[in-house]
Amino acid sequence: MKLAIASTLLSTAAAFAPSATTKTSTALNVGFDRPSDALPFASAPDTLDGSLPGDAGFDPVGFSTAGWAKIFASDSGDAMTDLQWLREAEITHGRIAQLAAVGFIWPSVFGTFPGNEWSGVDAYSYVNPVEALQNAPGPAFTQILLAAIFIEFKRVQIIKEEGSSRIPGDIKLGQTGWNPFGLSYTEEEYFEKQVQEIKHCRLAMLGATGLWLQANISGTDIASQLGAALTSPDYYTKAGYFLPEGI
Question: Shortest CA distance to 112 belongs to which of 140, 135, 132?
Fold first, then answer.
């Protein structure tokens, strides 16, 4: 399970894909006219018109006005738009972060997976993901790298085939492709699922960053940190509860 941490840094996960938007601009001087829902005291560039799932008008730097699509333009001239490339990056990183958050929590709560039999080293008993990543054997990293290359290769193929008509983040799993669970949402329900996913992605990116920093600083796993926070401090066990009753 510890290797899942490294896998999340190299691969993408499948989820509900966000809808595409046709509004884009490559000019850096686009006006900031729309009031921002995320920052009430600021304005959003007109490239963010509210049609994109999860668009709250948060772009104080103006990234959505840059010409990202020109960097990845294809000979066919049917490349994704600027805003589509930004959403592609956001949702891909968010999915990786969601897997990373699970990889931080799972080992310390549910235990580790076997694997020392073939590795010859005690590489899979570390509940701190940082230590697990540092002690993972070379063959495991090779396996992760090959899997990530395959996933990214398939994703690039889809981008080249569909161009600007592609829904950012769609790797043909779920309602738009292989659908083992028989998902069939209405247009309104599908949009709401897209909003839910992008919110989870953004929260996971913040959460995974915090988990990584905390693991580096503390040197312990998540369960140990939470367990210590829920125990009584030493002064309480030695001196008793000295505050007035009811406090």
Answer: 132
d(CA 244, CA 238): 17
- Spatial distance between the Cα atoms of 214 and 73, rounded to a whole number of angstroms: 40
Question: If 0-12 CB within 10 Å is exposed, 13-18 middle and 19+ buried, where does residue 225 land?
Answer: middle
C-alpha distances in Å from residue 218, one per residue of 98, 124, 126, 133, 195: 22, 20, 14, 16, 34
pLDDT tens column, 18-41: 344 433 333 344 566 678 888 888
Give the model confidence (pLDDT) of 211-223 as tens digits: 999 999 988 888 8
**Quick one: 181 exposed, middle or buried, by C-beta within 10 A (0-12, 13-18, 19+)?**
exposed
Element (H, E) at 44: strand 43-44
CA distances from residue 177 to 98, 141, 149, 164 in whole angstroms, order as listed: 22, 29, 21, 18
Output the pTM of the full model. Answer: 0.74
Domains of the chain: 3-26+67-239 (1.10.3460.10)
How far is it between the farthest Cα atoms of the chain?
Answer: 76
Instruction: Provide the residue type at 143 as one letter.
Output: Q
Return phi, psi of residue 141, to 5°: -65, -35
